[in-house]
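CORE FACILITY INTAKE
Project code: CF-77B
Contact: R.S. (postdoc)
Sample description: multi-component assembly, two entities in total
Requested service: structural model of the whole complex
Turnaround: standard
Below are the sequence entries exactly as provided by the requester. Do not edit them.
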Amino acid sequence: MASANTDWFGQGRQAWEKAQQSYWQNWMRWMQSNPTADSPFPSFAANVAPDMEQFWSESFVDAFDRWRQMFFPKAPESAKDFMERATGMGRSYLQMAEAFYRAGSGKGSIDEELINSWLGAMQASFKQWKQQLESGFDVEMPGIPGFESMVMKFWQSTIDTMMSGAALQGREFPDFSAMMFPGAGPGRQQLDKMLGMPALGYGREKQEKIRQFSELLAQYGDALKAYRIAFARLGMRSFKEMKKRLDELEQPIDSMRGLYDFWVEVNEDVYGKFAMSDEYQVIYGDLVNSLMAVRQASRELMEDMYEAMHLPTQTDVDALSSKLQQARRENRELRKQFAALNRRVDILEKEADKKPSKTTRKTASRKVVTQKDDLTQIKGIGSKMQERLYEHGITAMEQLAAMSRQSVEELEKAINATGRITREQWVRQARSMLDDEN
Amino acid sequence: MSPVNMKPQDILNEVRQFNEKFAKGIHSLMQTGEISSGVTPREAIYRDDKLVLYRYQSKKKVTNKTPLLIVYALVNRPYMADLQEDRSLIRGLLDAGQDVYLIDWGYPDAGDRYLGLDDYINGYIDDCVSVLRELYKIEQINLLGICQGGTFSVCYSAMHPDRVRNLITMVTPVDFHTRDNMLSHWVQNVDVDLLVDTCGNIPGDMLNWMFLNLKPYALMGQKYLSVVDVMDDPDALEGFMRMEKWIFDSPDQAGEAYRQFIKDFFQGNKLMSDDVVIGNMEVKLKDIRMPILNIYAEQDHLVPPDASRALKKKVGSKDYTELSFPGGHIGIYVSGRAQKIIPSAIGEWLDGR
């Protein structure tokens, strides 16, 4: 039996190599010919001898990987991200197909028994994962057929995004990704190493900060553990639900794709319910908050170092951005006031144009500067307050109407009437008065 | 009955077909150039910081004299409303005789971290409205807000009712605490102050992952297998790639605006209790008395219909119309059905007012 198998394998390999050679040669020729949308491309099936089906069937994923490797560098830039996602998912799907094919080949068909044993195995692997997590072991999520560990990858990518600017990876600080579970494994060793670092220059204060940092890391580790355990339970629920729904089917599923789509539906439903649960709200919030606390603390540690080197810190940059935004607001305010004044000048010039003599027009234009509106029309402004406003250069309704929150506050201070302009809504009143006029 | 009934040979055939389709698809993929988006000719008529106000050029006669200003969300990019020739809300609105303008917010950077909702709504939006009022010598313009841009438009209309003639909201959240709002459910226990204080601007990728995780198995898995079925059709593939480009083209969110939006709207649901204050102005929905057309999508997984429909009972308008679209949050702009229904409905509604 063993020798027959070896023979089959040996012959198969030779035939496969031959077919493979011609197959890839065709591909290479095709690629070198600067293919256009119209040129024919080599067919997969035509280049593989029919008797090779058996061999191909046992390397769905290998064949697919070759394609990935071959095409990826040649793909247009704009298509690379898409290709990565599409081939990644295609690969997972083929893995699932391959698993079923292999299992089904032994008994001739994919039937209830096989599906049940598949679900049972998945259930067991998630149960084991849960137990490992509960015992404090840092174990990655088992792949869900067809999706691998996609849902957990989401979290990893969030961490990557969040921590990308934190410069945690380096000599000063431990590798963050290895510290997901600070209580165990390499993370623990790194933490010990870090805590054992000589406290050059900073002495106790730095040691204390590092100790606090490690506490936050441990809290994050706990939050991530709770999150993973919840996902382990979610996985187990999905398998159970899959079995239940398969039992309720009226028509059997007769294709791999049909099975995949059914599997998606079940997972999505179970996940959807879980994502709307109070439990998820808590573990999700805890995870985000604890990660942010770690990042915040790491930033403080980094900033000490930056300050010692006389380099600008994030806090410095924030302070500048804040001032920049303030300047922008003032700028916008001034532009508004300027535009309001311009409009007023235009109106007055037009009025002056209606009058015959040039001398009168000149006088009218000059009047613009000294034009004073009756501000007492605004509820809250009496004649005394009006005088005070005139003294501070507020003479036109437009000026009041165009005021920002900040200039209101400044004016309130200047005229010694804290909070009054806002409370009595002078700006709003002025605006509606101007609108009524127009 | 066995719930699954397949022969190994069937799987083999399926895998073969899958590989062949994929190979053909890759062939099409190699031919795709730069994916274009935003197809209707337009000119920039006003700029401020990163904001650009565009006017779209119509092939047809503009019949509605009041300009229509589209306010898009800060998340994702506004070319969703003008994706391709045959899938463009903007093109449809132009064809319906509207004079269309759109605010493009651009991509905030570190210098924009302190941009708040007051800057966006009473600053940028108000400036754009002023530009149009001046240009057309009119007091009021028509406002069309999309998604978060719709929420901004609602706030703007409440604070400056004298400047808005008609308000149209599309897939716009108003009640953020409906039972089916997954995004809202997720953020209730998030310490937003800590998040913004730590991150500054909120990375667009992070939000994008959040959106994809509303339906992870379909949006990150199944979708990429389904596309294999149409990959041999270059047009279909290009359409898919264009959507992909849009989905992953997520600008970062200005920190302060994000902070207030999450705290006051998502967590506090203050729009519903009239407790939102933007800058020094209160937002009272009763102050909205202009005609309203509220359009929502029945299968919207991001903004559930009830979140939008809540507007009806809160506003002071007597002229309130709802339009329910049988589709999803994105389909409402890009699906074939949407092209037929939405722009003409908006045009007719506006022309009558």
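Facility notes:
- Chain A has three domains: 2-110, 114-308, 317-437.
- The radius of gyration of chain A is 36 Å.
Invoice: internal transfer
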